[in-house]
Design goal:
heterodimer, A: alpha/beta, Rossmann fold, 5-stranded parallel beta sheet, 9 helices, B: alpha/beta, 2 domains, 5-stranded mixed beta sheet, 13 helices, 41% helix, globular, binds thiamine diphosphate, binds magnesium ion
Chain lengths: 274, 318
Amino acid sequence: MLNTVPTIPELQAKAREIRRHVIRMLARAGSGHPGGSLSATDLLVALYYGKLKHDPKNPKWPERDRFILSKGHCCPALYAILAEMGYFPVGELDTLRQLGSSLQGHPDIKRTPGIEISSGSLGQGLSVGVGMALAARIDGRSYRVYVMLGDGEVEEGQVWEAAMAAGHYRLDNLCAILDNNGLQIDGPIHDVMSPLPLPEKWDAFGWHVIRIDGHNMSQILEAYDRAEAIKGKPTIIVAKTVKGKGVSFMENQVDWHGKAPTPEQAEKALAELV
Amino acid sequence: MTITTQEVRKEATREAYGQALLELGEVNKNIIVLDADLAKSTTTIKFGKKFPERFFDMGIAEANMMNVAAGLATCGKIPFVSTFCIFASGRAWEQIRNTICYSGLNVKIVATHGGLAVGADGSSHQCIEDFALMTAIPTMTVIEPCDAAETKKAIKAVAERPGPVYVRLGRTPSPVLTEEGTPFEVGKASILREGKDITIVACGLMVPNALKAAENLSARGIEATVINLHTIKPLDRKTLVAYAKKTGSVVTAEQHVLEGGLGSAVALALGREYPVPLEAVGIDNRFGQSGSPEALFKEYNLTSEDILQAALKAYGRK
Ligand SMILES: Cc1ncc(C[n+]2csc(CCOP(=O)(O)OP(=O)(O)O)c2C)c(N)n1
Ligand SMILES: [Mg+2]
């Protein structure tokens, strides 16, 4: 179990390392989703290195906090973190998306240590989180449940069914993290199918809403702590992010949602991530 | 006519869909297209650019999209609804069953990224159950064209056909085996090759593999008929029974689980009307996984060699 909280510069350095992994993994695989992996990286690094109660050597520890990547297509960033933390060898990152790999194109609970639920079909993760949060209550356990959602993903009706249930049962051990990068596949979210305004909707469903800059490490850490302190309702952290963050030619580009960089593009990207 | 696998160009069936919609949109103003944030992948974006007033991106909300299509259909529109096969047939199944089909509505569900050939995205995106899900619904028509040329014909045909239809299309470029002039009729199996010893019944991407297997069987002195069963439902029982009688053994081949797909439909029909030795090529009680389409076809025993082995087995049981 990890109990030393890293400094902000350490977290930032770690995030850079994770972004480098993401670029290399996707370039090697020849497919995958860079945009949303990079927008989520800081949120994930702060969560895993700065907040989550977990033990990479004992992934099934019953008291561990749970994390669900509901926007499953962004698993490269999560895989890189899990590998860096020792859930499995870093070398396995090279096998992403290959036949027989433990690292599937979308998260697979049966193949990958540290994955709490298979995902990839959008809109389903928050409901699973509600189930885990209810189980904690039933069993009298103190673990917390975190679920990361995409801002296009919240167009799914099921997300709001889950939001309703979490509000109804006052699940204060549940924290949603919304990667608000403003883009989905067919374009900006407000053009394709606007889910806006987001904070007001969650508030209306009985959630406590915290708004932050999703690339500011101290804001992220503080939000995780504030979420834990809120009692009597679930909390959502609406994190404003930049899709493709950290790679200039990918930033805010809808086309970088779901394609891998070529070897040349990867080199260019890695040169920026130092 | 004998269709072979020699030197054919490749095109993904989803590309042909986008093209067909463009042509249909021009001649039929009632055609409306809906997509769920996958318009580039399904290629409905082509229609969306040309006819923006008749195109609706419904966002990542497939269940809602299905019933919006139902509403449009009650008002005389002909909605074409597209997303990936798994989200169309899976996520929105009950909307399709209870609102679209039970109400007898004229909704065309054309879904792409069918089967294992989706590749690296892995199991969550590889729909290998849609024939079972869709054929199980009373009154539904279910089609998987064998190539891009046939897709164009199928899309035009279903636009004319009243009632609900599900069409499964593929992501990867695949051999274009048929021509513009090759006949296509919904519910009428198409014979690609005539042979007296065994009948191979296939659909979609398995058709080129079936043809290849037939060529290799011929080299061993076994002549196979190859049937492109593009319409899984309604089933062309007449043709199937005729060829079961003629050849005395059958192999089915599909990119689908063995339960509830083409193989089980053919087996049921022949079992009731004219039982012959039958072997089935399909996915045996496993989920898919990430990998290249070629590697996956090998891993899941869907290659032309697997069809050939199944054919030898069925033939040997005569
Ligand atoms: C139910 C479902 N419908 C469609 C898709 C295809 N899909 C994958 S990612 C994506 C866009 C997601 O956008 P967003 O949630 O904003 O993710 P991000 O921008 O963080 O990548 C879509 C439509 C899917 N995976 N699941
Ligand atoms: Mg987004």
